[in-house]
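Step 1: inspect the first sequence and its tokens.
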Amino acid sequence: MISTSGTALPGLTRSLAIAPIWAKAAAVLVGTALLAASTQVTVPMFPVPMTMQTWAVLVIGALYGSRLGAITVLAYIAEGLAGLPVFTAGGFGLAKMMGPTGGYLIGFVISAWMIGYAMERGLGRSLGTSILAFTLAHAVVFVPGVAWLAYLVGADKAIALGVVPFFIGSVVKTALAVATYEAARKVPSRA
């Protein structure tokens, strides 16, 4: 249950908690569009490109809450599996999901749920706890991502290619996600 008291949750999260199903469906569509758009900001790297997707995942999870955030990321993955070109570089389909980025896509679901859960529990009330929660939720993306990549290319290569080059970008994207959340938290609620 999402608490709607206090000021920890932004107005959007409080509103979505009590919103009718059509409003939640619209939020999912907006979220999947944001995720698809975030793939267009890409730094080509091999075998996993760097995109703004983790920023989008963190923001969606924090603003939508654990359930709707995870559902939104699952809907995004379903769109890609159904043939919509929403994955990085216009990719889609099962082959993309089974490729080097597949584990990271699964990590997105876990991350969105985790940051949403943390914000629902009040960890967004202070900047320090927000930074901690966003950092941990971002790091979680790498667990299934690197595990799947290790299955494909070996553990040493998975760490060298799937973690090390992403460190600075992850710090920047986490900071941007915290800043986005903090800005959204200050928007007055109409709920």
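Step 2: inspect the second sequence and its tokens, then contrast the two.
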Amino acid sequence: MKTVYQIVLAVIIVILGYLLYESIMAPIRFEKEKNRRYKATIERLKNIRTAQDAYRSRYGKYTGSFDTLIDFMKHGEIKVVKQIGSEDDSLAVALKKVYRDTILIPVRDTILKGYPYDSLRFVPFTGDTFELAAGELNTQSGIKVKVFECKAPNKVILKGLDRQEIINLDDLAKKIDKYPGLKVGSLTEATNNAGNWE
């Protein structure tokens, strides 16, 4: 009978040791995976911001549609002003040989060259899409500003990871009045298209 108790006690010790190890390692693994996913998502949001800035330079506004943005990146053109001659050359200026010429060049050859534009809409590691919106904002000084916002909540970015850890992360963000996830730009304030990680 004594041997049975020893075996049962040994099994309980092993189980408790494993549970203790897992309680320590689970948050560490979650944090490591969260950082990996955040890093990839931030890079994608920066690329979306770059694409939106190019779109705005061409059309004077942002777009709230990934279809429009991706089509622009694949088939659109941007204006580039090229100066012929040097303004430092007084003779060339006097002879009116210094002028500027505007040319159109394909976006795909200049901005995010070689980037798989179709992937812009997708949150890395999940297959879900970002939320994208564009609009116009009146500032306190009465100036109308074109704005856009692209975001993904933690429950999408961290899909498939520990649910309680995601809830805790969202709770912390709400307590400090931050968006519970990652976003770039804002529809409610002029942020110069800054990301909430910056």
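Step 3: confirm your contrast with the notes below.
Residues 2-59 form the longest helix (58 residues). The two ends are 65 Å apart (CA to CA).
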